[in-house]
Specification:
This protein is of the alpha+beta class. The chain folds into 2 domains: 122 residues, Glutaredoxin (3-Layer(aba) Sandwich); 163 residues, Glutathione S-transferase Yfyf (Class Pi), Chain A, domain 2. 51% of the residues lie in helices and 6% in strands. A 5-stranded mixed sheet has the order 1-5-4-2-3, covered by helices on one side. α2 links the parallel β2 and β3.
């Protein structure tokens, strides 16, 4: 019953977030920051710019993303939690025409700062944002991520983000579900939306067995493998949390921390939360949250912490 209540709560939250930001969140390689030679054209810009203050003008003005990219989503989670103003451009996964301004880098996410600086790769974007926050006087942050944060961020990159595609493309129906976000994107024409959704879904479903075998998984083992990784995070990043089921009252009684970061989310929390937010509302998410109440409760706590920061 408790798991069902949590699942309903998370589903309702998903709908609220979807209405607020219709375009939520494949993988970037390690690249140093560069500078764009020209600003991205106005035609690439979608609505959704957050209001900026004078102090916020040093922060990223635009993110180039795929909505179901876990690497893009972890950057968004970091920016949302730290109240950094940004807007998004949804990148056409077939043509990538929105990335023409980027001469030698054609992966997402890409962040273009208001200064014209272009930062490639999700980890480098998060580290650059952290530096800017510290330079701007943001309290409670060290200039560099802690060893704990770096370890679990890298772990999530290697163990969770890479297992999401084999899960969300298991069947054609799940693959179509994953590409549903394209149907709601005003950035594409009606014809493009149908073409991208169906061609993308069919192509990724065809590639799923190869992705699955790459990680040593047999057909039908995708969910189990993902849940094993999530359980490892609960035990490793937050010792003892899984043993008590994550309930807040019991955490308060025993002194267990509700987040990897202790009393508040750190970069490790935001990384994994963002990755799971990329599949929020999909069958993968529903299966995981209903089977793992500890993960569902932790996810809800991070979600509430992010919302609280935005008030």
């Amino acid at each position: 019953m408790r798991s069902l209540q949590l699942l309903r709560s998370l589903t309702a939250s998903s709908l609220q977030e979807a209405r607020a930001t219709r375009l939520p969140y494949l993988q970037g390689t390690r690249r140093v920051s560069t500078r764009v030679q020209a600003a991205a054209p106005e035609s690439n810009r979608e609505s959704g710019d957050r209001s900026t203050t004078q102090a916020d003008k040093v922060f990223p003005a635009r993110l180039y993303v795929y909505s179901i990219c876990p690497y893009c989503c972890k950057v968004r989670a970091f920016m949302d939690y730290h109240r950094l103003p940004y807007s998004m451009t949804e990148v056409n996964p077939l043509t990538k025409r929105e990335l023409r301004f980027s001469a030698d880098y054609k992966k997402v996410p890409i962040a273009v700062l208001n200064s014209g600086e272009q930062v490639n790769d999700s980890d480098r974007i998060m580290d650059r944002l952290r530096q800017l926050l510290v330079q701007g006087g943001r309290a409670g942050l060290s200039p560099e991520p802690t060893a704990h944060e770096l370890h679990w961020r890298t772990w999530a990159n290697d163990n969770v983000a890479k297992l999401l595609p084999p899960n969300i493309y298991r069947t054609l129906s799940e693959s179509l579900e994953a590409f549903e976000y394209i149907s709601a994107s005003p950035h594409f024409s009606a014809l493009e939306r149908q073409l991208l959704r169906w061609s993308g879904a069919v192509m990724m479903r065809a590639l799923q067995p190869k992705m699955r075998r790459k990680y040593g998984l047999e057909a039908g083992q995708e969910r189990e493998a993902l849940m094993q990784r999530l359980e490892a995070f609960m035990h490793g990043a937050m010792p003892g949390a899984a043993a008590v089921g994550g309930a807040r009252d019991r955490q308060q009684q025993t002194g267990l921390r509700p987040f990897s970061g202790g009393d508040k989310p750190d970069m490790a929390d935001l990384t994994l939360y963002g990755m799971l937010r990329a599949v929020q509302g999909m069958r993968t998410s529903r299966d995981v949250m209903s089977a793992m109440p500890t993960v569902a409760e932790w996810y809800q706590r991070v979600q509430e912490a992010v919302r609280e920061q935005q008030r």
